[in-house]
Amino acid sequence: MNTLAELLRLTEATFWQAIIAFLRVGAFSSLLPAFGEHSVPMRIKLAVAIVFTMIVAPAIPAMAPPDGAGAFVRLALAETVIGVALGIGLRFFVFALQTAGSIAAQSTSLSQVLGGAAVEPIPAMGYILVIGGLALAVMTGMHVRAAELLILSYDVLPAGMFPDASVLSDWGVDQVRRMFSLAFTLAAPFVILSVLYNLALGAINKAMPQLMVAFVGAPVITCGGLFLLCVAAPVMIRTWLETMQGFLAAPFGAVP
Q1: What is the pTM of this model?
Q2: Reduced to 3 states, what is the DSSP secondary structure of residue 122?
Q3: What letter does residue 115 receive in the DSSP assignment?
Q4: Most buried of 32, 54, 70, 121, CB within 10 angstroms?
């Protein structure tokens, strides 16, 4: 009888440990790049969240069950906010690739090519960069780094403790700044190509006003943009991956 009672207490403690961990893990995994995309079915997302919970729950400090309904609601809100904040921090890196692709496409007159092929209306360049970046991130163990991030997050943000609003807002604004900085850095070669192209086009138009330079220049900028994409995409994706890995290693102090 004592053994059965001890087993029931252990089962109840394990159940609450998993529930509390699932609150943070579920919110985080719903925004996790590759696993939380709109094209991934909800059942797969739920399975991913359960698997992450099975990994994270045994590795975090033991947590006592909440005393009542009010305590549980407060705990659920706090854990959800923390999970969403961490997930958005990673989701910003996908936004950075999309923004970089949009800047590159606008600079090279390729913004309308296959613009609606993705779930989100982004140019073809952005779609290629996002797919390549997510594939490389998963192949290099992003899911392992994400599990480590969740486990270590309990040292900085204990379970049930609401993060300070001012600190969280400053952190979020800094992530937005870093995202746009990274996006423009990735798209810089295309912006430089666009500037050189327009300067050359203006000089040719000034020297030969009778020539329809737009008809001559349009194929040049299109071919040049595609060629530059083939050459620069590996470097762009590698730079993006290194920056994201730096964030996963130190989400509250990573510098791009």
Answers
A1: 0.83
A2: coil
A3: T
A4: 32
